[in-house]
Amino acid sequence: MIVCKFGGTSVASAEQIQKVANIVKSNPARKIVAVSAPGKRSDDDIKVTDLLIQLANAALQHENTEEKLQTVVIRFRAIADGLGLDHAICDVIAEDLRERVQGDKTNVELFIDSIKAAGEDNNAKLIAAYFNAIGMPARYISPKEGLVVNDLPERTFALPEAYANLAPLKDTKEIIVFPGFFGYTKAGVLRTFDRGGSDITGSILAAAVEAELYENFTDVDCVFSANPKVVNDPVEIKEITYREMRELSYAGFSVFHDEALMPVYKIGVPVNIKNTNNPLAPGTRIVPSRPATGRPVTGISADSGFSTLYVSKYLMNREVGFGRKLLQILEDENISYEHTPSGLDDISVIMRSNQLTPENEARIISRVKEELHAEYVEMRHGFSMIVIVGEGMRHNTGLAARAATAISETGANIEMINQGSSEVSLVFGVLQEYENRILQALYEEFFAHAKAK
């Protein structure tokens, strides 16, 4: 069995959904299809998810929601018309949206989650209806029928019983169309996964049915060794390990969500990134292990939006529990951290800036000064993390020196260096303004020069 997931651009219009149907029909092993909400049809278009967020905000502000609701319905109606479907499916979608808008608004986060999930949920219903209309026996299944997730306040993840609940889908005779992006708690509360959540849903399904392959269809032929919007004509990656892809996805590779690898990684289901618009292209395979190549670096990625909590205290290294107490303060504010480079008398905690507000930032600084008696505390913003990834890095000497030299030639200062314990990645913290220049310089060092040789 093959589980396949189709992203927002792959299901953005009737024409795209027809391509999806042809892809699914071309291989009888493709029995489970996870789908996103309709994405952009062009660069200046608006995703259905963004329209739904506008609808949710209008409802929360007690505005008249009918106009915004109809904007969403019109998008789905255009798809239905293009597929030759009866408008009855649009009536179902409109009624579903009205029920969601009238839902409990006590918890704003959960209310917005419910509205956002309508994009994936209703698109799955529409696509299942289309498959049946063209003679492809299909069935829509709601995540409520098995995809059990945890309760607040932790970020959303599938509970172990979700896999057992979904395992019987391996025996399906029909094509299962399953909405991505969300699940339900044991109490029946809808919760969404993080960005790229449909990737996570597809991965959960693939692991649950122990699929032979998880195909992730998007709008590019493969994964590239660097961002093609920054680097001209980057090298294509034909095969990459789970660990390499996890590191690259964490630091800005938007093709595949980093959390989506965990379910398939646990049982060794290979993943194939493919292009809906060019399905015959081999794509990029993500596998448990791969043969060594002559190139130590597989890919280079960069992500912005990081902040650093810098703490200095003389003889910090002699103080038992200092690091634990510092991280406890962040935990109390429900903030996760990414790296903790340290010296004898100072430590930096690097975190995603979107977790910070002026209020919790002030509380953190105040508590570190008062409770840990730090001599100097500062929150710094505007950092990017540059990540160099490759299974072959551990067998190559001088790689960090080559990278540092390339970065220095851009005029940037390296604020932080962190070598992963697995030696698959090397992370450099730099000021955000240098991000693209550094990415280009590192690509030139590890790919362009090697290619020229």
Question: Taking strands numbered 1, 2, ... along the chain, how are they ordered across the largest sheet?
Answer: 3-4-2-1-7-11-12-10
| Contiguous uncertain segments of 5+ residues | none
DSSP strand content: 15-25%
Oligomer: single chain
**Helix/strand-derived class?**
alpha/beta
Task: Figure out the total of helices.
Answer: 14
Biggest sheet, open or closed, and with what strands and sense?
A: 8 strands, mixed
Mean pLDDT: 92
For the secondary structure, the number of strands is 17
Helix content: 25-40%
Q: What is the global morphology?
A: globular
Taking Cα atoms only, what radius of gyration do you get, to the nearest Å?
Answer: 24 Å
- What is the first-to-last residue Cα distance? 43 Å
Q: What's this entry about, in short?
A:
Helix content is 38%, strand content 21%.
Structure description:
Helix 2 runs antiparallel to helix 5. This protein has helices spanning 14-25, 48-60, 66-83, 88-101, 108-116, 118-133, 160-166, 197-208, 242-250, 261-267, 322-332, 358-372, 399-408, 435-452; strands at residues 2-6, 30-35, 138-140, 175-179, 182-184, 190-192, 213-218, 223-224, 236-237, 239-241, 271-275, 284-287, 299-312, 346-352, 376-389, 416-419, 425-431. The mean pLDDT is 92. The radius of gyration is 24 Å and the shape is globular. A hairpin with a 5-residue loop joins strand 16 (416-419) and strand 17 (425-431). It has 453 residues and is α/β, with parallel strands linked by helices. It contains 14 helices and 17 strands. The protein starts with a strand and ends with a helix. An 8-stranded mixed β-sheet has the order 3-4-2-1-7-11-12-10, sandwiched between helices.
